[in-house]
Design goal:
The complex is a heterodimer. By secondary structure, chain A is mainly α. Chain A has helices at residues 2-49, 53-67, 71-81, 90-116, 119-127, 132-162, 174-185, 188-217. Chain B is globular, with a radius of gyration of 18 Å. The chains are: A mainly alpha, B alpha/beta.
Chain lengths: 222, 240
């Protein structure tokens, strides 16, 4: 038993600086994925909630296609599939794929949250003379945001873990590096255990931050 | 102040209002009564265009609105509305609820808006609740804040849609008292309510709706003591 701990600590210290660097890449990919995902999500949620049928159809098309195909296919498609039109670096192909992928799920989260705000809220706002855009911005969105934090947090955690899939196009993020390390050192047990631990810690930090933010926005609690 | 001509409103196949004519004079307090489904709440909601009428014409203080595309928010800013379920903004404190529309719609300066809001809170007896969130208030307090919020826009007419129906019995009086004070100050009011004592004491005119038409329109004394319509008589017996 102590031997295992010994080698684990050995591998851990040996890989530490490389893994920390790769963690930065993983976090960057996740951040781009989340930010782009939220922007796309908001945009398509609004399209879906609009009264114009063609706009709804565009949103439905996006959500159906993206949710209906594997992320790994989307990553490969963006990196290798569209080189005739644009060439993206592997880093950006991966980041954009993550953003587009998460956008579809986040669109549904936002749509649900916006629709979940009581109709009486918009009526009260309208009755005070507020315009539609003022009502959305100042009354509906803040309440919808509060409602969307738990599912959004879930999606963020999925995005963080899904960022490992960009290893297929060779971005030097955590999982990529772990693969290489495992193969080179012939220590897959220790390496994958350690990289799993990295993800776990990141997810726990995420969860903590989200809970803190949710509490901060919580106007219903005592 | 409000002029309604031949108002028709349907929801799908259901015709809720079947040609309503009604004129409300400045400073008049009109109470709308009727059994549920008679169309009284719908009529009220038409007056600030939360429902758009299918036919007819509504004029508010000289402005006629026929279509959704007209400048609804401008007219609505002149018409206050108090809802059965208060509809306070839960993410804003009491004072933020009140200053929201004056600042956003009337572009009032924050200091001026707060000053006015505090006067209004004082008026509804909640000066000490300025900085709490709505979920900390009782139903009666919420409704008084909602009234203050409407008044902050300095409306020309106030509409009340069953303002006490969601309240526990012991909280009804405090809301009715605020409404009574408003009426005494000369506010033009249209009130949908089941509170017959309020109607008797405060209304200038009571209007009875039945199946989408006005079947009785009289001062309180005549309404209660000498109604002309058979269904009004039945209604009065039921509620008294």
């Amino acid at each position: 038993m102590p031997e295992i701990f010994g080698t684990l600590i050995d591998v851990f210290t040996r890989t530490l600086s490389g893994f920390l660097e790769a963690t930065v890449i993983t976090l960057q990919l996740t951040a781009v994925g989340i930010i782009l995902g939220c922007l796309l999500g908001l945009f398509f949620a609004l399209l879906k909630l609009s009264k114009a049928k063609p706009l709804q159809m565009i949103a439905n098309f996006y959500i159906t296609v993206i949710r209906g195909t594997p992320l790994i296919v989307q990553i490969m498609f963006l990196y290798f599939g569209i080189t005739e039109f644009v060439t993206l670096s592997n880093y950006w192909a991966g980041a954009i794929a993550l953003g587009v992928h998460n956008g579809a799920y986040i669109a549904e989260i936002f749509r649900g949250a916006i629709q979940g705000v009581d109709k009486g809220q918009t009526e009260a706002s309208f009755s005070l003379g507020m315009t539609k855009s003022q009502t959305m911005k100042r009354i509906v969105f803040p309440q919808a945001l509060r409602r969307s934090i738990p599912p959004l947090g879930n999606q963020f955690i999925i995005a963080l873990k899904d960022s490992s899939l960009v290893y297929v196009i060779g971005v030097a993020e955590l999982f990529s590096l772990a693969n290489r390390e495992a193969a080179q050192s012939f220590q897959p047990f220790e390496t994958y255990l350690i990289v799993g631990f990295y993800y776990l810690v990141l997810v726990m930090i995420f969860t903590y931050l989200l809970r803190w933010y949710e509490n901060k926005l919580d106007f219903d609690k005592d | 102040m409000i002029k309604a001509n031949n108002i028709h409103k349907s929801f799908g196949d259901l015709e809720v209002l079947k040609g309503i004519d009604l004129e409300v004079q400045p400073s008049e307090v009109v109470v709308l009564v009727g059994v549920s489904g008679s169309g009284k709440s719908t009529l009220l909601r038409c007056f600030n265009f939360l429902e758009m009428i299918n036919d007819g014409e509504i004029t508010i203080d000289g402005t006629t609105i026929n279509h959704k595309k007209d400048n609804l928010s401008k007219v609505r800013a002149e018409v206050g509305m108090v809802f059965q379920h208060f509809n306070l903004f839960p993410h804003k404190t009491v004072i933020e609820n009140i200053i929201e529309a004056p600042m956003q719609v009337k572009k009032k300066k924050k200091a001026a808006a707060i000053k006015h809001a505090k006067e209004l809170l004082d008026k509804v007896g909640l000066a000490d609740k300025a900085d709490v969130y709505p979920n900390k208030l009782s139903g009666g307090q919420k409704q008084r804040v909602a009234i203050a919020r409407s008044l902050a826009m300095e409306p020309k007419v106030m509409l009340f849609d069953e303002p006490t129906s969601a309240l526990d019995p012991e909280l009804v009086t405090e809301v009715l008292q605020v409404m009574k004070n408003l009426a005494e100050e000369g506010m033009t009011m249209v009130v949908v309510t089941h509170e017959m004592r309020f109607a008797r004491e405060v209304a200038d005119r009571i209007i009875m709706l039945d199946e989408g038409v006005i079947i009785e329109s009289a001062d309180p004394k005549t309404f209660f003591e000498n109604p002309s319509n058979e269904r009004t008589k039945q209604f009065i017996q039921l509620v008294e």
